[in-house]
Amino acid sequence: MTYEAFYEPAGGGRFGSTPATAGPWDPAAQHAGPPSALLARALAGHDPVDGQLLTRVSVDILRPVPVAELTLRVRTVRAGRRITLVEGVAEAGGQEVLHARGWRVLAPAEPTPATADDGPPVPGPDAGTEPEHWAAAHSAGYLSAMQWRFVSGAFVEPGPARVWVRPRIPLLPGEPVGPAELALLVADSGSGVSARLDLARWLFVNVDLTVTLHRPPRGEWLLLDSATTIGPHGSGVAASRLADADGTVGGAVQTLVVAPR
Question: Which ranges are annotated Low complexity under compositional bias (predicted)?
């Protein structure tokens, strides 16, 4: 089934979650990408300052986010012309489910000297392969609402992966997905596409997501160049390079909790 958007605005900072937000493990719980992107949208638009760009967003996932109405609250922590720190909270059913903080940085009138892109060249989306299936995952929600083109690795194979991703639907009806929103919408999939363990035997969930951008991504496709490292004491880290057709735009890091199912 196709939905018009991930969310429907309900007024007063409230948003109805459509089934397109559902994650791969439970149709009643959201993938963290859409609500993180919704918070990024709120952080970027709260008390806006002309010329400021949202360059870093850190999200803490307090508990599973239900496919239900979300209420967002946002406040400015540190206001400034050059930099602004904003934070937001997403609530569902009277419980806080996500906390987020974002730094906005003023883009100067004259471009700053940019360093060369150190990332390896990657074939574009047209050279990638769409997955034929999603193993035992719930695929009718977020997985189907996004388009996937794997250049290397695959969701059903362990190890690092490089995959181009773009949303088939917007966050909100009739509203284009902004650059920072796209980064948050895609980046939370880094740990999934680069899984190192058997999904049937092991649970590995991220408790946070931090995305840093040195420039806004351009276009509708974003590359996840992801790798997961797991330690012996029940924790791990998934790190992703984020890139568009013109090169690297930033990176993402997720802290993982690992346990047998």
Answer: 110-119
**Topology given in CATH for the domain delimited by 7-107+126-260:** Porin (2.40.160)
- Spans of all domains in the chain: 7-107+126-260
What is the rounded CA–CA span in Å between residue 259 and residue 146? 28
pLDDT at 135 over 70: no
pLDDT at 180 over 90: yes
Q: How confident is the model at residue 60 (pLDDT cuts 50, 70, 90)?
A: very high
Task: Return d(Cα 31, Cα 189) in angstroms, integer.
Answer: 9
Q: Rounded to whole angstroms, how far apart are CA atoms 188 and 72?
A: 19
Strand, coil or helix: 40: helix
Confidence band of 261 (pLDDT split at 50, 70, 90): confident
The H or E element that residue 43 is part of is helix 33-45
CB 31 within 8 A of CB 22: yes
pTM, full prediction = 0.95
Residue from 77, 64, 72 nearest 16 by CA: 72
Q: Is 50 in a helix, a strand, or coil?
A: coil
Give the separation between CA 189 and CA 186, rounded to whole angstroms: 6
Which positions ≥6 away from 95 have C-beta within 8 Å? Answer: 62, 63
Cα radius of gyration (the chain): 18
The H helix count followed by the E strand count for the chain is 4, 13
